[in-house]
User: What shape does this take?
Amino acid sequence: MNIGITLMIVGMVTVFAVLLIIINLSNLLIGIVNKIAPEEETAAKPAKAAKAVSAIAPDVMEAIRLAVAKITEGKGTVAEVKAI
Assistant: This one.
């Protein structure tokens, strides 16, 4: 019984240590990649968004805006709506 508990504790500590190593190495890799190749910023195209909105009826668009505002408690906004 004593050996089993010891083996379990050693195994759990080993798994925890390996996970910490993986997390730290992943964060290091992310930092290196972000310094070498930062994400390019793209300008939003308002003409495209206006085109997508015009395909949706105004009352439907307003209902979508109200639903998003209610669900996100006013923190979210509707950027683009596409009809499928």
Notes: The mean pLDDT is 84. The two ends are 62 Å apart (CA to CA).
